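Below is a complete specimen:
___
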Amino acid sequence: MSSPSFRSMLLPKTVPGMLLFAMDVLGAFPSQSFFIGDRTSDMEAARRAGCRGIMLCRNGLPTGEHSLKDEFWLAKNLVEAVAYIEKLESV
């Protein structure tokens, strides 16, 4: 993986510079990574970075606009998000 530039990390959140930088530093591959966020822009950044998104719900409801065709998983809280990741990793 090539490190994104510092400049790319200053762009809007949907540009995945920060995610790509973190994966590069950690030696992680996008296809094996998850990004947990609470906004649709977080899920767009995850998609653009090539990793899987898990969207946290506020008050039991998703934040912002989304539809069933969106390729991310909804979680009630961080505990549920981590349980989902662990379940996938054990398969």
Remarks:
- The first helix runs from residue 6 to 9.
- The radius of gyration is 13 Å.
- The longest strand covers residues 52-56.
